[in-house]
Amino acid sequence: MDKVFFRKASKDDVDEVYETILSAFGVDEGSERARHYRSIASDWKNIVVLELEDKIIGVAHIARYVLWYGISEFVKGDVGYVSIRREFQGKGYGTFLMDKVVRYMENDGFHISRLGGLIRFYSRFGYVPFPRRYYVFPLEVVYAGAMKITPPEYLAISHKDEINIRKYDATKDYDHVYRLIESFNRGRIGALKNEKPSKLTASESKSFVYEDNGVITAYLHTYIYDREAVLMGAFDFNHRRTFAVLLKEVLKELYHRGIRNVKGRFPFDRVMEDIFNKNGIYFVKSELFSYPASNMLLIVNLNGFMKSILPELKRRVEEETEGWHGTIECNVGNDKVFFKVDGYDIEILDGDTKISDRITLDPQDFLLMILGYRSFKEVYTTGNVSRKLYSFLDGLFSRQSVATGQLG
Ligand SMILES: CC(C)(COP(=O)(O)OP(=O)(O)OC[C@H]1O[C@@H](n2cnc3c(N)ncnc32)[C@H](O)[C@@H]1OP(=O)(O)O)[C@@H](O)C(=O)NCCC(=O)NCCS
User: Fold this and answer.
1) Ligand 1 center–CA 125 separation, angstroms
2) Cα–Cα distance measured from residue 236 to residue 248, given in angstroms and rounded to the nearest whole number
3) Cβ of 98 below 6 Å from ligand 1
4) Ligand 1: centre distance to CA 122 (Å)
5) Three-state DSSP class for residue 232
6) Which protein residue has the closest C-alpha to ligand 1 atom 12?
7) Which residue range forms the structural domain that includes residue 328?
């Protein structure tokens, strides 16, 4: 392994990076997949490579995203296209590359990393399985006693609403929709900062808007892959009903096209559920834990992550707890972080310090809690802390409104 060398890619590496990905994944040039790999290779600023005697034999793509966390934010790195040229596979190079990738992210300001892949391989680097969340909209006939109700019947909307729905027009709507997405995402854990309206480059991708008296109040983007559709969207909280109506219209269209598998990448929170329930939208909330391959997360820099989200934690301590006094050592896997709480103030301390309490969570539980998927009470089922600390932590770490898509 002594001759291998890890570095960031440069513009001159694009061809070799492309060949490496093709070789690793066993894809022929000229195919649709190959065209996609070419576009990934061209994104050389987000690529790192492994070189052996001046030849690139390994590649990884690291996409950087800034995500909201209440009034704070954090940086996520999506690792993808991890590739070792076919003839070099199974010799330890992939392991070497991934170790370097993790260290590189740690030194480059990333807090959390996400990827999808074989659990057995990626768990070596500390990645843990993390659920994917989405809503399923079953487009099926509903039987109620002697009655049979078809999707076009239960998804029917009024004529007035129908005329307010139209295709998204990038030249005219971009700024409006950008602002709509921005205010919809603001503050929600895991939502993208600076998310742009989806580009309509793929032929099977469409966006629609609900426009009322010249104002766009809801936006919905549809990706169609084979017989499956994925929906994403945003809306004005003062016009929730218009989003429900837009969703019904799009679901009806998908049904007419023969698509039966529809997933919605919408936030998991009370507002969404309320909209679906109040407007008669048939839905399933799905939280998928898959094996042996899965969506996975890694805390790249625990202390850096906690410092980055500290403003939001301070806000919660003030607004959602009764306060507390003490210093907690929080153990997460092989890592730890120290919180000092002084009444309604909280700070993250560097290095070892005198502590009053200690809690231990495995990385998956910690991630579920810190990202608002579970409350402290739900994950902290072992060990004993005082009642006062227990209720303080449960106030600090409650279930939150969380975006879907970016974290899984
Ligand atoms: C996955 C890959 C990068 C690993 O690199 P490598 O140099 O072969 O790996 P190493 O020799 O360091 O380690 C071998 C491990 O790779 C893992 N591996 C093999 N195929 C894999 C795959 N498709 N995805 C993830 N891990 C894989 C196995 O866990 C194996 O170890 P184990 O048998 O002891 O469990 C490489 O095999 C590759 O390029 N595969 C094709 C492309 C691919 O599937 N990339 C992963 C995208 S998520």
Assistant:
1) 13
2) 17
3) no
4) 9
5) strand
6) 92
7) 301-396
Angle formed at CA 261 by CA 250 and CA 144, multiple of 5 degrees = 80
Q: Indicate whether residue 125 lines ligand 1 (CB < 6 A).
A: no
Whether residue 294 lies inside any domain: the answer is no
Asked if 93 contacts 250 with a C-beta cutoff of 8 angstroms, the reply is no
Ligand 1 atom, smallest distance to 84 CA = 39
pLDDT at 2: 61
Contact call for residues 279 and 248 (beta carbons, < 8 A) = yes
Length of the chain: 408
User: Which is nearest to 188 in space by CA: 377, 371, 394?
Assistant: 371
Beta partners for 205? 223
Assess whether pLDDT exceeds 70 at residue 355: yes
For residue 311, pLDDT beyond 90: yes
pLDDT in tens, 137-156: 999 999 999 999 999 999 99
How far lies 106's CA from each of 276, 343, 398, in Å?
A: 41, 32, 28
Q: Is residue 104 domain-shared with residue 163, that is, in the same domain?
A: no
Residues 173 and 311 in one domain: no
Please count the CA atoms within 13 angstroms of the CA of 341 that sit on its side-chain side.
24
Those residues whose C-beta lies under 8 Å from the C-beta of residue 50, and which sit 6 or more positions away, are 4, 5, 6, 56, 57, 58, 59, 84, 93, 96, 97, 100
Can you tell me the distance from the alpha carbon of 93 to that of 110, in angstroms, rounded to the nearest whole number? 23
Q: Specify the number of domains making up the chain.
A: 3
